[in-house]
């Protein structure tokens, strides 16, 4: 197992730790754990590309780990009213659309490739920033305009990237013209 895949595994293992710490009301520790998990994503991606250590399992597990971390965070933030519930619905809906599209594409083409778009990656970065901002808000005097701006920007990107993935998937499945 290479270093990028070990980092992805560490991120997966940090998800329940983050959730337990958050549920126990230790939000500053949860912020640290979430941030550490998010940092492993940036590092594993860089190392995999830089050292040419991209693997089939890493290509599949990395986005799955990202989605699980973010969905866990949004479920907790929504359930504990740290984020509006409509944010949770929007994030979850996008992920269901992406997963359903991937499954349909796989059934039709037998391809298991997971190819994120630049917009999808930007949305992930914004979602991480939003979770960090909402967790920080409990401990710092973060102005509502800042968290609100991050929230609405992130949710707009989430919606647009979901639509983008739908359109991209439909284009991929269109019959090729000779």
Structural class: mainly alpha
Mean pLDDT: 89
Major sheet attributes: none
Task: Provide a count of the helices.
Answer: 6
CATH architectural category = Up-down Bundle
Overall geometry comes to: globular
CATH class: Mainly Alpha
Q: Could you please say which CATH topology applies here?
A: Four Helix Bundle (Hemerythrin (Met), subunit A)
Tally the structural domains: 1
The multimeric state of the shown protein is single chain
CATH superfamily heading: CDP-alcohol phosphotransferase transmembrane (TM) domain
Straight-line N-to-C gap: 43 Å
Low-confidence stretches: none
Number of strands: 0
Fraction of residues in H or I helices: over 70%
Q: Determine Rg (CA atoms, Å).
A: 17 Å
What percent of residues are in strands? under 5%
What series of H and E elements makes up the topology?
Answer: HHHHHH
């Amino acid at each position: 197992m290479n270093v990028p895949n070990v980092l992805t595994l560490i991120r997966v293992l940090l998800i329940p730790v983050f959730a337990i710490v958050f549920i126990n009301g230790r939000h500053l520790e949860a912020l640290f754990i979430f941030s550490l998990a998010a940092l492993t994503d940036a590092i594993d991606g860089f190392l995999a590309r830089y050292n040419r250590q991209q693997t089939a399992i890493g290509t599949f597990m990395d986005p799955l780990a990202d989605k699980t971390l973010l969905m866990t965070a949004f479920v907790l933030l929504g359930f504990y009213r740290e984020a509006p519930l409509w944010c949770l619905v929007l994030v979850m809906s996008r992920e269901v659309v992406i997963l359903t599209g991937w499954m349909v594409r796989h059934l039709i083409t037998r391809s298991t490739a997971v190819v994120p778009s630049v917009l999808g990656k930007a949305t992930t970065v914004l979602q991480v920033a939003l979770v960090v901002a909402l967790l920080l808000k409990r401990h710092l005097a973060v102005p509502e305009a800042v968290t609100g701006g991050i929230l609405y920007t992130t949710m707009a990107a989430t919606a647009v990237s979901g639509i983008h993935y739908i359109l991209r998937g439909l284009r991929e499945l269109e019959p090729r013209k000779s």
